[in-house]
Design the sequence.
């Protein structure tokens, strides 16, 4: 089980620093004790195996304690972006029937009506304030952080019948209809990835490992668990620093980060605007990146500026954790095509299936399919959707169809070519364009909608949209962006929405993406 | 409008910046608008890409130049900070012009 990484390190290296959150540090012993208190708090509310608990917090010491506590209780954690609109928070809470949620007082009122909730744990709430309202019949119990910390810190009773197939976490991603879908990952899947990633990244006791990605982003699985496995130190990178590449560079240097993991767009910003040559980064040994294609121009600059670390490209949709990887070599930097996604890893197998359903030969393109231990257990509550992507393929009885088009190079390395559907990546976040279009269509003034991305090497894809408004509509583009923000996470809100008379169509009546891009490019 | 006017009052600067941020970044949540000293960064109003859109805007609108060492938390933390930074730059520019 994933929490055993923490238990083992707490036993062997109790005094080592486990987490650094700004000025606060926690040793392995302290993290172990606090997460036991959290686990006990949840168990006391009847929460355990087979339940789900929302983790609706900014990344913080409390969030890490919560994460391990939820797992120790036997439940699965469901990280929810605190910047999400209320609609999305409520949708997720109800969709996966959360039994408990860890959040801050601001959200108490909007969560208390979620029928499945047995308890709401409020971080930052003062024990003496008005939260001690009389408990209404059937309403969830409200607890404060102080209530959690008042529990015994002894380990909770181990579960009699736990299994590696138990769910460890559910990550919600963009769904094509505008409703998010929950990717279920088991302890087994997490282990297969973490054990592999831990060794390939070379995590050593005492290493400072970055925690850059938010917890609802699957990159965080490496950060949290590979660090715990290695008795290394997780350094929480403040969200605000990602906005300021120069200060982020200082942070990496001054915090002696040894292992860095983020989406490429963060590294692109660091290299373009972080003035990296001000520092030597003597501690930095491994740089991992995943989530999108790293523009070679900036990767080249990065490796030239910082030649010492090893650079690793990890690939895998949330549904497979990570399933292939590629160690960047000097020869890669001279390429004109994008960096390969490389070789299969984590004990998985990969298959390339041609459009006609036959296994592709060398040099033939097809859809990448993955089989093996890192696969998800399915989409929460969506059996039909799960069956569409998980099942038999030529060459294997049970595989995940990624929807990614790839080709195998003559040397055997896999290269990513694009998507079979309209999913795009915006700074590592996956977005189904149809989801944005659907949400726009929910607005009463919108007759037709089209979402698209404009690629840019430096700033990554920019999300834009066009709408055709109904006659006499008075909605402004700003109203429409606000409308999107009511339903979608911020990264899915188009930076610009333009109204037009009609959407350009192809001869077959589909939206003409090429002409839409041309139109969008002219509107700056 | 005073696009070609070299100098702005502090109030005008504040208004222009607030209007731009409202327009570009702020999708008001049900509870609140944005106070002058609210952290734009902590509240996620401005993200890693947004900061560069904002810098471009300031450069073009006020004809000032913003270099990488300027793009730090201290100058972009809040509406107030952005205003103070912009005003300082405008004054610096006027100083250079009259020298």
Sequence:
């Amino acid at each position: 089980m994933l929490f055993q990484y923490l238990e083992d390190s707490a036993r062997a290296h109790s005094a080592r620093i486990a987490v650094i959150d700004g000025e606060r540090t926690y040793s392995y012993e302290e993290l172990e004790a606090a997460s036991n208190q959290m686990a006990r708090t949840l168990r006391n509310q009847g929460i355990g195996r087979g339940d789900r608990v929302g983790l609706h917090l900014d990344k913080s010491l409390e969030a890490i304690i919560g994460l391990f506590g939820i797992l120790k209780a036997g439940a699965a954690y469901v990280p929810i972006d605190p910047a999400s609109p209320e609609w999305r928070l409520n949708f997720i809470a109800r969709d996966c029937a959360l039994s408990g949620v860890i959040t801050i007082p601001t959200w108490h009122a909007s969560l208390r009506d979620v029928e499945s909730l047995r308890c709401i744990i409020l971080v930052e709430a003062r024990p003496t304030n008005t939260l001690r309202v009389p408990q209404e019949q059937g309403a969830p119990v409200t607890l404060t952080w102080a209530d959690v910390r008042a529990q015994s810190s002894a380990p909770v009773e181990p579960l009699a019948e736990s299994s590696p197939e138990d769910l460890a976490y559910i990550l919600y991603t963009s769904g094509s209809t505008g409703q998010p879908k929950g990717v279920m990952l088991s302890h087994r899947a997490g282990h297969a990835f973490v054990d592999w990633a831990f060794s390939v990244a070379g995590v050593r006791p005492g290493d400072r490992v970055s925690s850059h990605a938010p917890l609802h982003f699957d990159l965080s699985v490496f950060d949290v668990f590979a660090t715990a496995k290695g008795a290394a130190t997780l350094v929480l990178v403040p969200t605000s620093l990602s906005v300021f590449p120069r200060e982020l560079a200082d942070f990496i240097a001054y915090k002696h980060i040894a292992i860095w993991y983020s989406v490429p767009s963060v590294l692109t910003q660091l290299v373009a605007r972080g003035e990296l040559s001000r520092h030597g980064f003597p501690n930095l040994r491994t740089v991992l990146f995943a989530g999108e294609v790293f523009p070679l121009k900036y990767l080249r600059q990065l490796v030239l500026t910082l030649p010492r670390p090893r650079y690793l490209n990890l690939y895998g949709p949330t549904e497979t954790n990570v399933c292939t990887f590629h160690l960047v070599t000097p020869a890669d930097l001279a390429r004109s095509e994008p960096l390969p996604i490389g070789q299969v890893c984590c004990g998985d197998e990969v298959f390339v299936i041609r459009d006609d359903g036959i296994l592709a030969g060398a040099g033939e393109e097809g859809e990448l399919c993955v089989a093996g231990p890192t696969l998800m257990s399915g989409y929460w509550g969506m059996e039909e959707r799960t069956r569409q992507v998980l099942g038999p393929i030529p060459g294997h009885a049970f595989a995940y169809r990624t929807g990614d088009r790839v080709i195998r190079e003559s040397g055997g390395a896999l290269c990513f070519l694009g998507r079979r559907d309209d999913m795009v990546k915006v700074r590592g976040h996956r977005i189904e364009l149809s989801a944005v279009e659907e949400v726009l269509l929910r607005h009463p003034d919108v007759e037709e909608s089209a979402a698209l991305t404009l690629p840019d090497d430096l700033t990554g894809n920019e999300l834009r949209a066009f709408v055709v408004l109904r006659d006499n509509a008075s909605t402004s583009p700003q109203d429409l962006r606000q409308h999107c923000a009511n339903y979608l996470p911020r990264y899915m809100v188009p930076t610009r929405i333009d109204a037009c008379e009609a959407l350009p169509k192809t001869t077959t009546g589909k939206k003409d993406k090429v002409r839409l891009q041309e139109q969008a490019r002219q509107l700056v | 409008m005073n696009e070609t006017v070299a100098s702005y009052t502090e109030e005008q600067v504040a208004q222009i910046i607030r209007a731009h941020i409202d327009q570009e970044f702020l999708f008001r949540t049900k509870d609140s608008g944005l106070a002058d000293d609210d952290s734009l960064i902590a509240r996620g109003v401005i993200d890693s890409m947004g900061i560069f859109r904002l810098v471009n805007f300031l450069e073009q609108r006020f004809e000032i130049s913003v270099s990488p060492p300027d793009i730090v938390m201290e100058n972009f933390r809040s509406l107030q900070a952005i205003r103070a930074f912009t005003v300082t730059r405008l004054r610096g520019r006027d100083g250079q012009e009259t020298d």
